[in-house]
Amino acid sequence: MTQEILLAEPRGFCAGVDRAIEIVEKALVKFGAPIYVRHEIVHNTYVVNDLKQKGAIFIEDLDDVPAGATLVFSAHGVSRATHEEAEARGFRIFDATCPLVTKVHVEVAKLHKEGYEFIMIGHKGHPEVEGTMGQLDSGIHLVEDVDGVARVNPSQTDKLAVVTQTTLSVDDAAEIAAAVKARFPKIQEPKQQDICYATQNRQDAVKLMSPQVDVVIVVGSPTSSNSNRLREVAHKLGTASYMVDSAEELQPEWFDGSVRVGLTAGASAPEILVKAVIDRLKALGAVSVRKMDGIEETVKFPLPKGLRLDSTPN
Known about the structure:
With 314 residues, this protein is an alpha/beta fold.
């Protein structure tokens, strides 16, 4: 059985997730339950269930939000139409969209005014993609893979820009972006890459960890894009890899003959789940835990106005 657990650094919550959860918790304290949240605040079952117990109600349709209610937009962002409808209905709104996603929205709006069309690299149906594409009524085209690049047909190519879902595989996004650039050589690329710092750091840590271990365990929910990408990164490096939503999902046979297990967590997975996985691995025979060296993340995003607990509810 496994002798050592190797812990990836960094792992788990990023600044955008911390901020989104704090927005819901502070809104609950300041305005009282219920607080309505459009879509899961972040893609993690434990986090969502915890907030439900505290009084958050998660909805997909604004028709499910009563008049005068407090509404929080999830970390993934929403379309312009959703934002405008919520404002027209008079809800008290707090936008928990990750600032790095908002940066993409701002860039799309700015270049659209200059006459640009867009190619977006991302996964169809993901709420972040829907939110970003929903910033415009038209002129933004989704590409999910290299093959899709050949099928995309913008109405013009003189003013064309590319944007990316922030939680993609860094390597996959780069491969698709290269194909886009090859087909549209004049395409405008972001001043800074859209893949977020936390996604990049966690994938880099898994790339460093995978060759040193026999099995990689990723703590994350099935709906979490960045967690799925971490498992894929390990798999592509030839290391057996599994993603679990909780310690109960660990299967003893995964570790047959293994000496060292690598453990990481997606950006929306809390450390309490990592600790539970460590406890379960120890129960299965692991005898030591070693942290890898890694980047120390110090990014912190400010909360929206109106959530200071010492200010008067509006």
